[in-house]
Specification:
CATH topology: P1 Nuclease
Helix content: 55-70%
Number of strands: 2
Number of domains: 1
Protein name: S1/P1 Nuclease
Mean pLDDT: 91
GO molecular function: endonuclease activity; hydrolase activity, acting on ester bonds; metal ion binding; nucleic acid binding
Radius of gyration: 19 Å
Keywords: Disulfide bond, Endonuclease, Glycoprotein, Hydrolase, Metal-binding, Nuclease
Oligomer: single chain
Organism: Aquirufa antheringensis
CATH architecture: Orthogonal Bundle
């Protein structure tokens, strides 16, 4: 049964968002980043597709964080958000399809090290089918979740087993890079990333994105070490009110110093994520025959 009634969409959101309130600790780009990426991606779309996505901007933002929420109920979910490229010979695995990869490694081994470049094409194919069926509920849900996985592929730390700096004595680097600094930058991230364009090979593009992210890791790790060494311990952290809790967090001085040292790395990956989310939404619509929703 097609559930394209807005009432069903609201019910669906209520149920899933009741789980999402527990997920921010694990959310890549943070709640702020994922929601903003999906929102800004709607502005890359041409008319009339933009009109459809604009009507569902609220849902696209709220549902953006739900893949993280599913970690509480699905054991297989976590692997969809990352790939430990440092655990592979890149010459052997880059641009491989899922079927090609399974001829090289066992499925358990592959899933252990993350499957984001292979999961993105799966969600994309489902979105194409939802467009063909003109199933509004599924289009909005899958668009939001596809946006999440694409955004994850643009985070350098999601391409390494040292995802939180835990192997290099830099624990907490994960949330520092993708949550704390983006929240400080705020509206500075609201830059137009260009109009959406058609992506002919989603699998190839997904690999391009994770490989580009992976190349950013040396700068990310080295600057974290340098900036930390340049500051006194008392300058690095402050306390801020988060809801009803007072939490220890990287200070504004520390955050801005690290951001400056990265030379716009975070903005670059953020804007690329926005562009590529829009590209895939647009490509799915085109591949489905450009259905009308007027």
């Amino acid at each position: 049964m097609k559930l394209n009634n807005k009432r069903y969409l609201k019910i669906y959101m209520f149920i899933l968002c009741s789980i999402a309130v527990h997920a921010e600790t694990y959310s890549t780009w943070g709640f702020f980043g994922h929601r903003k990426i999906n929102l800004l991606a709607t502005y890359t779309l041409p008319f009339p597709l933009h009109s459809f996505y604009r009507r569902h901007q609220k849902e696209l933002q709220e549902l953006a964080v739900l893949p993280d929420s599913r970690r509480y109920i699905l054991d297989i979910e976590a692997a969809r958000h990352y790939i430990d490229l440092d655990q592979y010979d890149l010459n052997q695995v880059s641009f491989s399809t899922w079927e090609q990869m399974l001829r090289k490694k066992s499925e358990d081994s592959v899933r252990k090290h993350g499957i984001v470049p292979w999961h993105i094409p799966i969600v994309y194919s489902r979105l194409v089918q939802a467009f063909i069926q003109k199933d509004t509920l599924q289009i909005v849900k899958l668009s939001a979740e596809l946006g999440h996985y694409v955004a994850d592929a643009h985070v350098p730390l999601h391409t390494s087993s040292n995802y939180d700096g835990q192997k290099t004595g830099q624990g907490g680097l994960h949330s520092f890079w993708e949550s704390r600094i983006p929240e400080i930058l705020g509206n500075q991230l609201d830059q137009f990333s260009g109009p959406a364009t058609f992506i002919p090979d989603v699998q190839h593009s997904a690999w391009t994105w994770v490989l580009a992210s992976h190349k950013q890791l040396p700068l990310l790790f080295s600057m974290a070490t340098r900036v930390s060494a340049d500051l006194k311990e008392g300058e690095k952290y402050s306390f801020e009110q988060k809801g009803q809790a007072l939490v220890k967090i990287q200070s504004l001085k520390y955050s801005l110093a690290y951001h400056k040292a990265l030379n716009r790395q975070i903005e670059s990956r953020f804007q690329a994520a926005v562009k590529h989310v829009g590209d895939l939404w647009y490509s799915a619509w085109l591949s489905a025959g450009q259905p009308s929703f007027e």
